[in-house]
Amino acid sequence: MSPTYERRRRFLRDVRRLTPAQQQAFLATVERFVTSLASGEFDPALRVSAS
User: Rounded CA gap, 37 and 40, in Å?
Assistant: First the structure.
């Protein structure tokens, strides 16, 4: 199955510029976001508004 997204050069460049700690925090947040999408309820730590 192919990804449903496309990585942009600018995005990849920006991610590479993050410190290792920032990259780790970003990836942890992405995991929380994907899990929230799958469950249908957003983790309050993500501060996502339904409105």
Answer: 5
Q: Which residues contact 46 (CB under 8 A, 6 or more apart)?
A: 29, 32, 33, 36
Q: What is the pLDDT of residue 7?
A: 75
N- to C-terminal Cα distance for the chain? Answer: 32
For 47: left if phi > 0, alpha if psi spans -120 to 50, otherwise beta; the answer is left
Mean pLDDT of 2-31: 89
The pLDDT tens digits for 18-38 are 999 999 999 999 999 999 989
* Phi and psi angles of residue 6, each rounded to the nearest 5 degrees, phi first: -130, 130
